């Protein structure tokens, strides 16, 4: 039972955190409000509180969004990115999950050394190996293909480590019981292991989605066809165009930002649980 003083302190903490969150959300609120305005209104409202207030809804309220959608291929770019993210999430969970399970539950030669190598790879920046990836993909003629984009990104040392840490806590007697029911290792992984590890699956899924959604460098190297470009490349092309108004630029940035906010809002609890659970395992 909380005392009166503890309740008061909790309320003070809530108010302080709420004020801080609103402060940090100011740029997002400004972006969203001004994405519905013409450039003249954005300039006129810049030095007043009206900069954080959207205009009254009328026939021109969505003009910036309509112009971006009808005059550019941005929706296609967003659809491409969602497709790539879906492929990366499904295949990434399977491949990195298998690797994490092997490191956690299967005894094989040099297992600890492989774990050490994977942990060392976690600190290697992507920029140091992206040239090697590009040369290999080009050598095999996979440029301008979805396979060429996805293949080098599937194996993620950090995701393997997350899966391994969670799988360490799974009871071995469940697998022994599954074997009595003639359940093989692969079937056991998909029907028992993954359902028992929903938090880390959600964590890896969200991290993978964010990596794909925010990635600019790798798709800009692999893709040259406009039919395969991603949201970040489209965002850069549209905002760098001198004919694009400020309102239209803010509309594009809003369209790129909103999916990230939605995904994180829905899965924030699972992300916290997944990260906390990985830090609580030893071995």
- The helicity comes to over 70%
How is the main sheet built?
none
Question: Mean pLDDT across all residues, rounded?
Answer: 88
β-strand percent reads under 5%
Number of strands: 0
Order of helices and strands: HHHHHHHHHHHHHH
Report the C-alpha radius of gyration, rounded: 24 Å
Number of helices: 14
Class per helix and strand makeup: mainly alpha
Question: Spans of 5+ residues with little confidence (pLDDT < 50)?
Answer: none
What overall geometry do the principal axes of the alpha carbons give? globular
Distance between the terminal alpha carbons, to the nearest Å? Answer: 37 Å
Describe the 3D structure:
The chain has 283 residues and is mainly alpha-helical. Helix content is 72%, strand content 0%. The longest helix has 34 residues. The two termini are 37 Å apart. 24% of the residues are buried.
Q: Characteristics of this structure?
A:
single chain; 283 residues; mainly alpha; 14 helices
Please specify the SSE layout and strand pairing.
Elements: H1 4-34, H2 39-44, H3 63-71, H4 74-105, H5 111-121, H6 126-139, H7 146-150, H8 157-167, H9 172-180, H10 185-193, H11 198-214, H12 217-222, H13 231-240, H14 246-279
